[in-house]
Amino acid sequence: MNTALWLDRAAVSGGARPALLLGARVVADYATFRARAAGLGAALAARGIAPGDRVAIVMRNAPDYLVALWGIWYAGAAAVPVNAKLHPREVAFILDNSGARLAFVSDSLADGIGADSAVPLIDAGGDAFAAMCGTPPRDAEARRADDLAWLFYTSGTTGRPKGVRITHGMIAAASLCYPVDVTPVTGAEAALYAAPMSHGAGLYAAIHVRMGARHLCPPSGGFDPAEVLDLSARLGPATMFLAPTMLRRLTDAAKAAGSRGAGIETIVYGGGPMYLSDIVEAVDWFGPRFVQIYGQGECPMAITALGRSEVADRTHPRWRERLGSVGRAQSAVEVRISGPDGAILPPGTPGEILVRGLPVMPGYWQAPEATAKTLKDGWLHTGDVGLLDADGYLTLVDRSKDMIISGGSNIYPREIEEVLLTHPAVHEASVVGRPSAEWGEEVVAFVVPAPGAVIDPAALDAHCLAEIARFKRPKHYITLGELPKNAYGKVLKTDLRARLAGEGRGAE
Predict the structure, then answer these.
(1) CATH homologous superfamily for 404-507?
(2) Secondary structure of residue 357 in the 3-state scheme
(3) Do 355 and 299 touch, CB atoms closer than 8 A?
(4) Could you give the CA distance from residue 326 to residue 18 in angstroms, rounded to a whole number?
(5) Topology (CATH level 3) of domain 4-388
(6) CA distances from residue 124 to 83, 140, 181, 376, 452 in whole angstroms, order as listed
(7) CA 467 to centroid of chain Cα atoms
(8) N or C end of the chain: which has fewer CB within 10 A?
(9) What is the pLDDT along the chain (508 residues), one digit of tens a residue?
(10) What is the tally of helices (H) and strands (E) in the chain?
C-alpha cells in the first residue's frame, strides 16, 4: 500500500481541516495539501520519474517539506530525505549513491549543493516548484508493502553513509505502533516539527496525516526553545519529537521563563542517551508529558517504548531502573539479547540487542555485504549492547562501539579521522566522544603530529569545516606523542576515553 493513500483518506474525511501551518498561519487545509502533493506527483511523472525512482529532499523544516514528501509518493517514487546540516560534499555523495533523479532543496542550500552535484535541483520555495504543485492532480501510483518508500542514510563504521531501505510496509507498521505503544493520536493535535524532518520527526508525520492532525512548522525552521514554548501555548495541544539534548535546553528555557509548557501535550524523546537527572527534572517541571522510544534507522522509531505513565511514575520500587531503561518491545517487533555465540541470554545478562518484526529493514541500499552482517537468520543485529529484565524492560549498556551521538545526530569517528589524516600536519588521529551536558556527547580528537609539524587546532578546524558538516567537527584537539595501541597495532579507544574521564575527575 502506498503511504500517499493516507493523505487521500484524510482529505476525504476532513478536507477543510487545517493541515499545514507556518507558525500561526494556516498554509493549507487537507484538501489543498492533497491537491498540491498529488499535483506534484503528476508533475514528477511527466518529467519521467517512474515508480521506484529516487527523489531527494534537502530542505530545512517547512510546510512544503511534507508536500514534497507526499508528492514523491504520489508518483510512486522513493524519497531520499537528507539532513540539511550536512556539508555539500556529503549531500553530493548521498545524491550520487542513491541515484536520485532530482532533488528538492531550500533556496539557501541550492548554490552549495549545485557546486558538488550534477543532480537537477528544484528550489522548493520558487516558481518552478509552485507550478509543479499546480499540475492537475493524479491518483497515487500503486505500491506494495515491500516497495521502497524512504531511503534513509545513516553513517556506517567505514565513514561512508549507508542507505537504509525503508518500505511502505515499514512506515505503516511503525506508524500504527505509535498510537498503541507511544501515545494516542486523535487528530486534534498539532505535530510540531522542531527536530529535523529528515529523521524521526518526519517519519512520525505519516500517522498524524492519517489522523488529520495539524502539522506545525516553526518559522525559524529549526529548534528554538522559546519559539516552541510560545507556539505550543498558542496553537496546542502540541506533540513533538525531541532529542534528549533538545529536551534539556527546553527545560532550561522554560524554567528561566517561568513557563510550565502550556499547550504541550506530548514530547517523545529518543535518538541519544537521556541522563536520568534530566528526565526527572523535566517531569518535575512539566508534569507527565513524556514518552521515550528506542529505534534505529534500520528499525525506525519502533524497537521499544517507555510510556507516559512509566516515565512519570515515582511509586514503583524500581522506578529509577525503569526510567533508566528504554522501555519494552513495541507491538510489531520481538526483542532479544544474544551472546557472541548467538545464544539467547537470560534476563539481566548484557549482550547484543537483536530485533525482528514488521518495521525492520529488508537491507541496505546496494550494500549486500553490510546487509549480510546486520541481518542474520531474520534478526537485525543492532550493534548495541543491552540487557532485558524479567519484566521485559530493555536497558542500553552501550551503543555501537565507537558511535558518538551529539545533539541527537549520529557521528562516526572513522569519517572524521579520515579527514584529519589528509592534513599534512597530522600523522595519526583517533576520535572519541566525551559526555557533554549541552550536547549529550562532544567530539574530541587525539592527534599525533607529523615529524617536524606543530598541531594548530584552528587550522584543523578549518580543514574539517571544508570537508564535513559543522556539527561533526571536533570540539577539542589533544596532541599526543603516540596513540595507545594493543599488540596488533589497534588503537585503544578505551584508554583514550579513560584519559578524558580522568581529566574530568581531576577538574572537579
Answers:
(1) ANL, C-terminal domain (3.30.300.30)
(2) strand
(3) yes
(4) 34
(5) Rossmann fold (3.40.50)
(6) 15, 21, 35, 41, 50
(7) 22
(8) C
(9) 999 999 999 999 999 999 999 999 999 999 999 999 999 999 999 999 999 999 999 999 999 999 999 999 999 999 999 988 888 888 999 999 999 999 999 987 877 787 778 899 999 999 999 999 999 999 999 999 999 999 999 864 345 789 999 999 999 999 999 999 999 999 999 999 999 999 989 999 999 999 999 999 999 998 999 999 999 999 999 999 998 878 988 999 999 999 999 999 999 999 766 778 889 999 999 999 999 999 999 999 999 999 999 999 999 999 999 999 999 999 999 999 999 888 999 999 988 999 999 999 999 999 999 999 999 999 999 988 889 999 999 998 755 567 788 887 778 787 898 799 889 999 889 999 998 888 888 999 999 999 999 999 999 999 999 999 999 999 999 999 999 975 445 678 888 988 988 765 333 2
(10) 18, 25
Q: Which residues contact 415 (CB under 8 A, 6 or more apart)?
A: 155, 159, 160, 468, 472
What are the grid coordinates assigned to 191, written together? 505535530
For the chain, helix, strand, coil in percent to 5 are 35, 30, 35
Alpha-carbon distance of 23 to 37, in angstroms, equals 21
Report which residue type is found at 75.
Answer: A
Q: Which of 87, 138, 78, 137 is nearest to 117 (CA)?
A: 87
Gyration radius of the chain over CA positions: 23
Cell matching residue 265: 501535550
Q: Which of 193, 149, 174, 265 is nearest to 23 (CA)?
A: 193
Asked if 415 and 472 count as a contact pair (C-beta separation under 8 A), the reply is: yes
Residues 394 and 294 sit within 8 Å (Cβ to Cβ): yes
Instruction: Give the integer Cα–Cα distance in Å for 363 and 372.
Output: 8
Cβ burial of 82 (10 Å; 0-12, 13-18, 19+) is buried
Query: Can you tell me the distance from the alpha carbon of 174 to that of 199, in angstroms, rounded to the nearest whole number?
Result: 14
Distance CA 113, CA 489 (A): 39
The alpha helices in 421-479, defined as continuous H runs, are: 457-467
Grid cell 577538574 is found at 507
Cβ distance 259 to 286 under 8 Å?
no
Torsion of the alpha carbons at 488, 492, 493 and 499, rounded to the nearest 10: -170
Q: What is the pTM of this model?
A: 0.83
